[in-house]
Structures are given as structure tokens and as C-alpha cells.
Specification:
five-stranded antiparallel sheet
């Protein structure tokens, strides 16, 4: 049993109560331990000292509250008391606190012994000396730091900064700071420009693992790995604290190094972050006070100055080395000529041996060497160059004689070297060998004379420009532009003669290449193909441009291209017409059949369905449908004018039909701009080609429409007029009330590539091509125009020998069919065959849906009165079927009637023009179909009766 202090009893003696009151109110800790070292008594001052309550500590071993570093001292003191070696002990040590810190105390302890001398425990006091120890430690640290800073300065003064000087500086700082590890990181740039940090020096306390060879601490992108630390250092601030309070990405780097707390200070060189110095605590978490930080900042400043000095020395050595390398490897001679004191060459680069044949050593031995080697005429120039360099503001050329006797030209650029008072003490210069250039310039003068002669002999237009101005023009260019003398062109810019070519900035020359439109003096436009290249002319940079007139070539290409497009359009139009005509044929025929049936109803069914009121509406609907189909047929008929492949064939052409086709095709351009009026006079047919004439008038009508703005169709008109001219030619005019054509360009509208339309709208070839077509037909085309009132395009064409345009006679009423015949209809479109059978319902009609099927029937039976055969069929066309029947010798080929939807090959066209058989076009004219068949039936019947 351990004796414990007895509580104060109300009946205890008064002196004992006073004793306990004194003990419990003492500021020092009074304690009592048993023989095992456990607390048996603590006064309230214990709680104020450590933060632990008395109740929770009684019964605990006192060593649990002693700082680990001081436990050995405490154990030795208690052991000495227990064995009676000492009667009391006094020492200083640290006790831990509830906040995981510690307090320094002065311990006074005495043993508690029984009457027989047995050791029962110990008692004593704990006096708080923390503030005193901190002041003492701070003073000691300050002395250590000052000593370390002084040692650093001494080490820096003892030897200039070298590549390894950082290693000598971290040791005194690490020892003075009491840190576990001290180190320096230096900043450097990666090849891609990123800022990296690498550890350059390190000091470690005994037992602490070095990290200098850790690859993770080399080439660290701090801005990415530890952005907070990088930001603080970049602002010149320090970072200190416990690692466990740092950010996760920072702990990931610091904790593997067993760092508990640290201090990091920036190193600044030339106003930029050049690195940082750091201090790690690996044994305990430690707070760095302001005094320590300030002293270490002073040491960091000294290190930064040393780094700056090292960096400056290294840069100086690099610049000197680079200069030496440049000087020795440059093609120019670099030299320094001393003027103060005795004149001499202080430096001459080695290339002088190549240029003058004299070594640098010869120059060092002989200050007058250049004066002896210079050309006699340039001796005064050389003397002024070396003695008065400040007056040489432009390069100076001096001739020298080489050792081998050859003359070289050296171009010198010099600068004076002044002392503190402004006196010129030396001259530094660069001498460039320009011998080859001077020889080239001499040769160039001779070649330029030959070049002028060559340019005058070139048949193509050619000019030379300098700074954007024409300085030379050959005779071919002068004539091409319509001038008489080169003086009319000199001093002007080429862009002035180019249509739609923007002027380049003043003083610059654009290399004009490719095709350009060239404007002549008389206003005509020609197309030229330019080629330009830079050269030296009269010794200065210039640009030569050569042009080739390709107007006729491009016009011909445009005509061929247009002809190819028209041929493609014709093929397309023919295909469209054929595809539309086939269904249109049976649509119109079936609508006609229904109308006929409705007309016959009253006689067939008196008082029946025909008497119903809605029959009239049915008839009206059918008539409207047929009218619409007829309009489609007219449109398709106009398209057929573009399907003619024989553009060179001249024949009698119905001019009014051509004009109607052109107007119908341009209807969409006209309807939003003007009203259309036709004034057709009695005119004969004209000699021409229908397709090409349709192309001409379509272009004229479209141009007339585009000359009128949209939105005022009721106030403008386009008038198409025909009449017979006094010279017997037919006159066709397209008049409009548009904007008109300015008088100054009226005479040029038929020129190739001239247009009054905006860029991208017109090519300038439409009217030129129209002019070419009309003149090739023996006609003429002209224009009259008044700006603001309109334009008249007049076309004169030769009349056909057939005379006046015949007036179509009214269709005769067909005679009633009295004979019934046998008819074979051959068409690959079954609906067309059925439509024809309805039209010819008074005859015996058979259908064949292919040429081969028809050939089999005609071979087996030749008693058909008429054969209506489609011209174009996939397996066996009308031409092939006709020739096969003709070879059979039955004579049945004379009863063929060919049916066409409009798609002709050239062979089919030639075939139809060669054979005498009639041709019917889809959609059918029912009267014509019945008439042709009736005539064949009657002629066959008469022939049979005669036999």
C-alpha cells in the first residue's frame, strides 16, 4: 500500500489546514510519487501547467508525461534517489501538455523514506521555466544563425562562386537551424520553355536519409505539382507549417520523405525566381518563429547574390566564348584597332588569312600592315576610317592587295570605342569581302544592256516595275495598250491597265501572274496571260512581267465550252421531252376519250346519266385537265428546240416559233419585272438554225429582263417586235424600259469579256457570242439605248427563199371513216398503245410492247393496213424493225407510221429524213392520227381492189 495524503479534516489541527491551503494555492506544482513512480498527489497547479486534470493523472506513471528526449535524465535522477545515492535532485526537463506541446520545468525532488530507511517514493516541485528557456534558446539560436551567416559570407569571400559552391553553404545553415535537413533547389528552363526546379545541394543531420539522389526531386514542374508553393515563392513569400496541414498534392511529395514540418524561402536573381532554400524537420513538428525566418532570409539573400554573381560570370564566359566562335567562324573579318598610346591591332579574327593572305599574328606584329597593303587610291580613305570612326555613318569600301598580288574589295562597318571622358581610344569594325559582288555588278551592267536589247526583240508585251512604277516598257506592250510611245506608259502603274485589279499599297509591287483583263486606251478589253518574276535591273531590285494576248483563244474556248454545255442541255432536254411525252401522250388521249364519251352520253343513254346536273361539272373538270396537259405539251415542245444536235445545219426557220420558245423559257425572269408584249408582223421564214437562234433571243430577252429591277412589273414592259425590213431582210427587236446603257460603253458591249454587270453576275461573253452567231448566219445585230429610258436590241436575218411565212389553214373536218382496217401499234409503253387503240377504236387494233414481238407478228402475218411504230425502243428500235421488214420483201414497210416522243439520235434523225413514211409526235393530234391511218387503209383497199 502506497501512502496517500489525507484530506483536510474539519477537526484536523489548525496548522495542518493552513499547510494544505498553502500547498494547494502555490503556483508551482507540488507532487508526490510512490516507489513505482506513479502520481499519488498533485496540487491544482498541475492542471494550469499541463492542461491535464489531477483526477485523470493520479495513479498514472510520471514518465508518461515526460518528453521522450528527457526521460533518460528523469529515470537516472529517481534511480539515484531510490538507492540513496543522493538526498535530492534538481534538473530541467520538458513535460508534455494536453495540446500535444510541452513545457520546460525546473524539477526539485527529494526521496520519501520509512522510519527504517525504506524508500517509499519521492516528492517535490515543478517550476515552469518555459519562457526563460525560450528566451535563452532564442538568444542561442540568434547567435548560431549570425555565426552561420558570417561563415557563409566568409566562404563566399574565400573563393568565387563555382558550380559546387551551394553545397558549402547549406551545412552551416542546417546546423544553426537545428533542422533535420537543409537543401537548395535551383530553377532552370526545359527545352520547351517550361520552368523546372532541381535539387542542387543538401545537408542532413545524423540519422536522416539524404534525398539529393531522389529522381523525383529533379526537373520538378513546381507550378503543376505544388501550385500553392510556387505561387507563394513567385510573390517572394515564404512557406512554413506542419505537413499534415498542407494540401493533398503537397503531402504526396513531402510525406514519403518523412517530413513533419518545414520552412521554404525564395531565392531571387535579377528580379526573377531562381530557386529556393528549404529546412525540413523529420523528428518533431516545429513552429518557426519570426526571428529565425528573418535571419534565414538574410542568409538566403546572401546565397541569391552569390547565385547572381555566378550567373553573371557564366553568362559573360558564354558570351565571350560565343563571340570567339562567331568571330573565328564568321566569313567577315572582325577586328579591334587600338588608338590610345601606340597604335596596334588588339584583335583580328582568323578569317583575315583567307581574305588577305595575312595571318592575325602578322597584324599583331605590324600595326602599319594595312597601310602598306591598301590600294594607293584608298590609303586616305583607310586612314580616315581608322582614325575618325565616329564620322563613318555608312559602310566604306577599301581595296587591298593580297599576298599573292590579287586585289580584294573589303566593305568596312566601324564603331568608335570611347573612354570615360569621351575620347576615342579604339575602333572596332567588321570587314566583308565583296570582291565577287563588285565583279558581278560590273558584269551585270554589261548584261543589263544585253537584256534591254532582248526585251525590245521579244514579240510579247513586257514591262519592268520598281516600287510599283513602270520604268521600262517594250514596243509590243505600248502597241498592245493602244499607245504610240513608251513615254505614254512610263511612270504609271500596271494595275491602272488591269480591269478589276486592286492597287497594291504605295511603294510595293505585286507579282501579277495568271490571266488578267487588260484595258486598252480605246476602252476595248483584251485577255492576257501574265508571268512575273523579281530581278535586278540597273543594279536595283525590280519586277519584270511578260504578257501573252489570249483573247481569241479564250473566246474560242468559251464558245466551245458553251457549245458543249448547249449540247449537254440539248441531250437533257431531249431526254426530258421524251420522258414527259410518253405519259403525256396517253394522258391527253385518255382525257379526250372521256370528253368524247361524255358528249356521246345523251345519244347513247337518253334521259340517263347525262341528264344529271353534275355531268357539266365533270366535263368542265376534264376540259381544264386537258388544257393543263396541253400547256405542258407546249413547254416540252419549246424544250425540243434545245435538243437539236445539228447546229451547223441551215434551213428555213419559223422566227415567230423561235421567239415564242425564247419568251416561254424566260417567263420566270420576266414576270416579276415587266409586262410582255408581242407585235408580230407578216414576215417570211428566215435562213438559220432553230437551236442557235433560240439561244440568241433567249439571251436578249433575259438581258432585257435583268435591266429592269424587280417589283414594278406593271410600270415596265418588254416588247418583242418583228417586221420586214426595207432591204428584204427580217427584223426582230427586243425592246425594254430598263436602265439603259451609258453612251461611253455602248460601242463596246459586243466586245469579248466586256460586261456592265457586277462581278460574279456576267462573264462578258453573252452578247459577243450572240454577235458571232448572227453574223455567221449572214445577219446583223445592233443596239440603241438611252440611259434611264431603255434599250432596243435589233437583229436582221436573211429571209428564206420560200417567201412569206405561210398561214396555217384551218384544219379540215375529217371525213367519216367508212372502211375498217387492221392496225398494229408497236410501243414499249403499254399505256401509249392503249391510248392509240381508243383513238382508233373504229379499226381492229393489235398491240405489241417491243420491237421483237412486232417483228414476230409481221413475219407471220403481213395483212396489216397500218403499223404505228415508236422510233426509240430498248430492244429493237423503229429503224431496225423497218429494215428487218424491208428485207422480208413483203412491202409492209410502206405502211409504217413512225411515232416519236422527241428523243432522237443522229442516226434516227437521218433515217426519218431519208424514208418517205409519215411521223407522228407525242402527245398525239387525234385528228392527224385518224387521218393518217384512214389514208393507209383506203390506199391498201384500193390497191387490193385493183388487183
Amino acid at each position: 500500500m502506497h501512502p496517500k495524503p489525507k484530506p483536510t479534516h474539519p477537526h484536523a489541527p489548525a496548522h495542518e489546514q493552513r499547510h494544505r491551503l498553502v500547498v494547494e494555492n502555490l503556483r508551482d506544482v507540488v507532487f508526490q510519487l510512490d516507489a513505482d513512480g506513479q502520481w499519488t498527489y498533485l496540487n491544482p497547479a498541475w492542471t494550469e501547467l499541463t492542461g491535464f486534470t489531477v483526477e485523470e493523472c493520479l495513479g498514472q506513471h510520471h514518465m508518461d508525461f515526460v518528453h521522450p528526449a528527457d526521460q533518460q535524465l528523469s529515470q537516472e535522477a529517481h534511480r539515484a534517489l531510490a538507492v540513496g545515492q543522493r538526498e535530492s535532485c534538481e534538473h530541467e526537463l520538458r513535460y508534455r501538455t494536453r495540446e500535444e506541446g510541452f513545457r520546460w520545468v525546473e524539477v526539485c525532488v527529494r526521496p520519501l523514506l520509512a522510519e527504517d530507511g525504506t524508500y517509499l517514493g519521492a516528492c517535490g516541485t515543478l517550476h515552469d521555466i518555459t519562457e526563460r528557456r525560450r528566451a535563452t534558446d532564442a538568444l542561442a539560436r540568434r547567435e548560431r544563425y549570425l555565426t552561420a551567416v558570417v561563415e557563409i559570407q566568409q566562404r563566399l569571400l574565400a573563393a568565387p562562386p563555382s558550380e559546387s559552391f551551394l553545397e558549402k553553404l547549406v551545412e552551416p545553415l542546417g546546423e544553426a537551424s537545428g533542422a533535420s535537413r537543409a537543401y537548395i533547389f535551383e530553377a532552370h528552363r526545359a527545352p520547351d520553355g517550361d520552368l523546372l526546379f532541381s535539387q542542387r545541394a543538401e545537408w542532413c543531420a545524423p540519422g536522416v536519409k539524404p534525398e539529393l539522389d531522389n529522381p523525383a526531386l529533379q526537373n520538378m514542374p513546381m507550378e503543376r505539382l505544388m501550385p500553392r508553393l510556387y505561387e507563394l515563392l513567385s510573390r517572394g513569400q515564404s512557406l512554413s507549417g506542419r505537413v499534415r496541414d498542407f494540401q493533398p498534392e503537397e503531402r504526396a511529395i513531402l510525406e514519403p520523405q518523412h517530413i513533419l514540418s518545414l520552412l521554404t524561402l525564395p531565392l531571387w536573381v535579377h528580379g526573377t525566381l531562381a530557386g529556393f532554400i528549404g529546412f525540413d524537420n523529420c523528428d518533431e513538428e516545429r513552429e518557426w518563429d519570426k526571428l529565425e525566418v528573418d535571419l534565414l532570409k538574410a542568409a538566403a539573400g546572401a546565397i541569391a547574390l552569390a547565385m547572381e554573381q555566378r550567373q553573371s560570370q557564366r553568362s559573360l564566359r558564354e558570351r565571350e566564348l560565343r563571340f570567339r566562335r562567331i568571330a573565328e567562324n564568321a566569313s567577315d573579318v572582325l577586328y579591334r584597332y587600338q588608338l590610345a598610346g601606340t597604335r596596334s591591332f588588339a584583335f583580328v579574327s582568323g578569317v583575315v588569312t583567307k581574305n588577305l593572305g595575312l595571318t592575325p599574328e602578322e597584324h599583331y606584329r605590324d600595326p602599319e600592315l594595312w597601310h602598306r597593303q591598301v590600294h594607293p587610291e584608298d590609303r586616305e580613305v583607310l586612314e580616315q576610317l581608322l582614325v575618325e570612326p565616329e564620322k563613318q555613318d555608312t559602310p566604306v569600301v577599301v581595296r587591298f592587295q593580297r599576298r599573292d598580288g590579287r586585289t580584294v574589295w573589303l566593305q568596312h562597318v566601324v564603331t568608335p570605342v570611347l573612354d570615360g571622358s569621351g575620347l576615342c581610344v579604339a575602333v572596332e569594325g567588321i570587314a566583308r569581302d565583296i570582291t565577287e559582288r563588285r565583279q558581278f555588278e560590273e558584269a551585270l551592267k554589261l548584261s543589263e544592256a544585253s537584256f534591254r536589247i532582248l526585251m525590245e526583240g521579244v514579240p510579247e508585251p513586257a514591262i519592268i516595275q520598281r516600287d510599283g512604277t513602270i520604268i521600262y516598257a517594250n514596243t509590243a506592250l505600248v502597241y498592245a495598250l493602244g499607245f504610240e510611245s513608251p513615254r505614254d506608259v512610263m511612270g504609271r502603274r500596271l494595275q491602272e491597265f488591269l480591269v478589276d485589279e486592286p492597287l497594291p499599297p504605295e511603294g510595293t509591287v505585286s507579282l501579277v501572274t495568271g490571266e488578267r483583263r487588260l484595258l486598252r486606251r480605246d476602252g476595248k478589253v483584251r485577255v492576257a496571260e501574265f508571268a512575273s518574276l523579281p530581278l535586278l535591273f540597273d543594279g536595283e531590285p525590280a519586277v519584270v512581267s511578260i504578257a501573252r494576248d489570249v483573247t481569241e483563244q479564250r473566246q474560242l474556248q468559251s464558245r466551245l465550252s458553251l457549245a458543249d454545255r448547249m449540247a449537254s442541255m440539248g441531250t437533257l432536254a431531249a431526254g426530258i421531252a421524251h420522258e414527259i411525252n410518253n405519259p403525256l401522250a396517253f394522258v391527253i388521249s385518255n382525257l379526250g376519250f372521256l370528253l368524247d364519251e361524255l358528249r356521246r352520253m345523251p345519244s347513247v343513254i337518253p334521259g340517263g346519266i347525262a341528264s344529271r346536273p353534275e355531268v357539266d361539272e365533270w366535263r368542265s373538270v376534264l376540259m381544264e385537265a386537258r388544257e393543263g396537259a396541253e400547256r405542258v405539251r407546249q413547254i416540252v415542245r419549246q424544250l425540243k428546240s434545245f435538243s437539236r444536235q445539228d447546229e451547223e445545219r441551215l434551213e428555213a426557220v419559223d422566227l415567230h416559233a423561235v421567239l415564242d420558245s425564247a419568251v416561254m423559257l424566260a417567263a420566270n425572269e420576266i414576270k416579276h419585272r415587266a409586262k410582255l408584249k408581242r407585235e408580230y408582223g407578216p414576215v417570211p421564214s428566215v435562213i438559220g438554225n432553230e437551236g442557235r437562234l433560240c439561244q440568241v433571243f433567249l439571251n436578249l430577252v433575259v438581258n432585257a429582263a435583268q435591266a429592269i429591277p424587280e417589283g414594278a412589273a406593271d410600270k415596265n414592259e418588254i416588247r418583242v417586235v418583228t417586221r420586214l425590213g426595207p432591204d428584204g431582210r427580217v427584223v426582230a427587236e427586243v425592246q425594254d424600259t430598263g436602265a439603259g446603257i451609258p453612251e461611253e460603253v455602248l460601242g463596246r458591249i459586243f466586245d469579248p469579256f466586256f460586261t456592265t454587270k457586277p462581278v460574279g453576275v456576267g462573264t462578258g461573253l453573252g452578247l459577243s457570242i450572240c454577235h458571232g452567231i448572227i453574223t455567221s448566219l449572214g445577219g446583223d445585230i445592233s443596239v440603241e439605248s438611252t440611259p434611264g429610258r431603255g434599250t432596243t436590241m435589233r437583229v436582221l436575218l436573211p429571209a428564206s427563199e420560200k417567201g412569206a411565212r405561210p398561214v396555217k389553214p384551218a384544219a379540215a373536218t375529217p371525213a367519216p371513216t367508212t372502211l375498217r382496217g387492221r392496225v398494229l401499234i408497236v410501243d414499249d409503253e403499254p399505256a401509249v398503245g392503249r391510248a392509240l387503240r381508243r383513238i382508233l377504236r373504229e379499226h381492229d387494233v393489235e398491240l405489241a410492247t417491243s420491237g421483237r414481238q412486232a417483228l414476230e407478228r409481221l413475219t407471220a402475218d403481213t395483212r396489216f393496213h397500218a403499223v404505228l411504230c415508236d422510233v426509240m425502243m430498248p430492244d429493237l428500235g423503229g429503224k431496225d424493225l423497218y429494215e428487218a421488214v424491208q428485207q422480208g420483201g413483203s412491202g409492209l414497210e410502206r405502211r409504217f407510221v413512225f411515232v416519236s416522243g422527241g428523243a432522237f439520235t443522229q442516226g434516227a434523225r437521218d433515217f426519218l429524213s431519208r424514208v418517205p413514211n409519215p411521223t407522228l409526235e407525242k402527245p398525239f393530234d387525234e385528228t392527224a392520227v385518224r387521218r393518217v391511218v384512214r389514208e393507209l387503209v383506203m390506199s391498201h383497199t384500193l390497191v387490193a381492189a385493183g388487183n
